[in-house]
């Protein structure tokens, strides 16, 4: 059963997945996806960032990028630190947004992690615990609006964050950037 995607508000509460998206230019997009639990694949239960299969997710994204003639993304530890910190903040506050509880933005979090970026994008989202990173990435790539950032040839590096929340949700952040 394909994942149904509809546009929604950035802080909307949806049963299966909520995706927020922002780019450096300040354009904000949020979409909600319903039905990830109905995927026909047996799903793993992520309990912490150690459950995140970064290599598989990057492989999926890079395969989509290659079809568009884009270079592969490489995982950057500073972007990963920024993404993980934001996922932890979202899990603690139970709020999915590109704006942190301390009013931080993707740009300020990425810079605070020591990354000098010329451009950035961030995808914060929540899923039920039963969503694997490869299924989440597949769902994101099936959303034309989100795929626009994941397959944007401007970005050359990526970082992933995943944090289990106290409310039976997993909080994910994908930070994309290009260094100065």
Automatic annotation (TrEMBL):
- One Pfam family from the UniProt entry? CAP
Q: Which SUPFAM superfamilies match?
A: PR-1-like
InterPro entries membership: CAP_dom (IPR014044), CAP_sf (IPR035940)
Segments forming domain SCP: 60-174
Q: What is this protein called?
A: CAP domain-containing protein
The species is: Antrihabitans cavernicola
Q: What is the lineage of its organism?
A: Bacteria, Bacillati, Actinomycetota, Actinomycetes, Mycobacteriales
């Amino acid at each position: 059963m394909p994942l149904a995607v509809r546009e929604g508000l950035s802080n909307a509460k949806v049963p299966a997945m909520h995706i927020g998206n922002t780019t450096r230019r300040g354009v904000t997009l949020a979409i909600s996806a319903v039905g990830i639990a109905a995927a026909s694949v047996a799903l793993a239960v992520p309990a912490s960032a150690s459950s995140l299969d970064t290599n598989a997710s990057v492989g999926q994204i890079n395969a989509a990028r290659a079809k568009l003639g884009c270079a592969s993304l490489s995982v950057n530890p500073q972007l990963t630190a920024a993404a993980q910190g934001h996922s932890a903040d979202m899990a603690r506050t139970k709020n999915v947004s590109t704006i942190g509880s301390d009013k931080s933005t993707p740009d300020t979090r990425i810079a605070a992690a020591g990354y000098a970026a010329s451009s950035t994008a961030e995808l914060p989202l929540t899923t039920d615990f039963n969503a694997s990173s490869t299924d989440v990435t597949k769902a994101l790539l099936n959303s034309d609006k989100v795929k626009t950032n994941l397959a944007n040839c401007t970005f050359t590096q990526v970082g992933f964050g995943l944090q289990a929340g106290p409310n039976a949700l997993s909080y994910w952040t994908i930070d994309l950037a290009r260094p100065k």
